[in-house]
Amino acid sequence: MKEDLLHFIWGQKKLHGRQLTSTANEAITIKAPGVPNQYSGPDFFNAQVEIDAQMWVGNVEIHLKSSDWYAHHHQTDSNYDNVILHVVWEDDIAVFRKDGSLIPTLELKNYVSEELLLNYQNLVEKAKPKFINCEKDFAGIDLFLVEHWLHRLYVERLEQKSNQIEALLKKCNNDWEGVLFMLLAKNFGSKVNGDFFLDRAQALQFSIVRKVSGSLEVLESLLFGHFGLLSVEDCSDHYFLRLQKEYQYLLRKFDLLPILTKPEFFGLRPPNFPTIRVSQLAQLYGKEQGLFALVMEVKTLDDIYSIFEITATSYWDDHFTFGKISKKSKKKLSKSFMDLLVINTIIPLKFCYARHLGLDWTDDLITLVSAIEKEQNSIIKGFENIGSKTKNAMESQAKIQLHTHYCTKNKCLRCALGTHLLNRNT
């Protein structure tokens, strides 16, 4: 037995319409379960409960045992002074408020059906699944319910990313262009160097990028140096030496701190080498001076793709690293890479910016992401293995949210699909 089941029983109104009695033989009628609280304090706010023919409005606290009240030191916490009902699985001790009054207690173990307990055990407490708890039942869930929940999960994912963007916005004094630069740097760094690139982008005032963006080679010098790529030993390449010399000048001019660490190359395919990505990033900012305004203005995928039709400078046509000749090829951004930029940077930034303007672009953004092909990763493959096909990037993003924030954390009873399965035949 886990406390989340008791939260489910109370919050999902499983006890409504039942003749209930407190452990002190008081008649209890639940009028409204209240609002679930995700933070510190009682579990449900503003519940409405009739106890012994008297209506009470206040908070409800839920525990497995009554004695948990004291184990959690609620008796000394003023946040719990307004608890009108203590809901427990087992009543093992009387519980009193700070003023000495007895808190009415509802013991649930005599009111929960065997069917509900069995469904819960099958869903959460059975043997460890290969992928997710409901893997044997997922394919049989009504498609409309699944699609509706995935839609909500995608919006939830955008909200979480928006909160992360808000934090970056505070760090750069509400400079949206600076935030876009940070987000793009993280995505150009990919999984291997993303955090490193983001950290370096945060350490560089975007005003400096603006000042040098009129000269592509100066901009490249700044970014290659700032991202730790100009500390190559024994490189006599003329292009490299020019960049290195320019960066030394920029260090003094803008009072920048030299970097001692380097990005990773190991485990990356050559087109994803940080040298190539930094050159492409420099090309982007050399091409577009007002990138943020442009990104906020465009509405179609084709228009976004046109912004990111960039190629690393000609030096990289026959190089992947400084000083080493390679087979000649243009280093363009691939469509799949641009799709990742749209998914992870453009759409979340548009969502956040719309909120700042008091606008709702959600439907338009969902239409936009739904036009992108689904992502390919182990999570999406896992859902396909249990019979759940993924149609587009909106669904793949939603399934990543589902798997990461619900399935792997056993939050089945906060998942619309988990509660649907638990409600069967109860």
From TrEMBL:
Pfam families: DUF2851
Protein name: DUF2851 family protein
Natural source organism: Flagellimonas iocasae
